[in-house]
Amino acid sequence: NPGPLDDDIHQTYRQEDRVSLQVSGTFKVPNFTLNINTIFEVTPLDQIPNRRSGIILGQTGFIDQILYESIPRVILEKRGEIVEDSEWEAINIKAYINENDEMVEP
To answer: Which 8-state DSSP code applies to residue 5?
Structure first.
């Protein structure tokens, strides 16, 4: 079955068995909003470890650039906080490296 990116209009973005897309968006966590402008690669599911569907954030380009605190849902609930059904944790950004290689502490 053809997918939404199989149309010929997207031919420019194809490289071998992948499609590259420029993506601009906002990543929001409780104490911080990060605007991103990056390149995403759409990869066939059978080439992804454990056939994981979704967005995989790069280790060196994203995860290694932030210091964060992850608070699981059960801890939030034990603190008496109201947690929506769609929420599973709170992530607080403590510091990050910006595009100028400077550390920022929000």
So the answer is: T
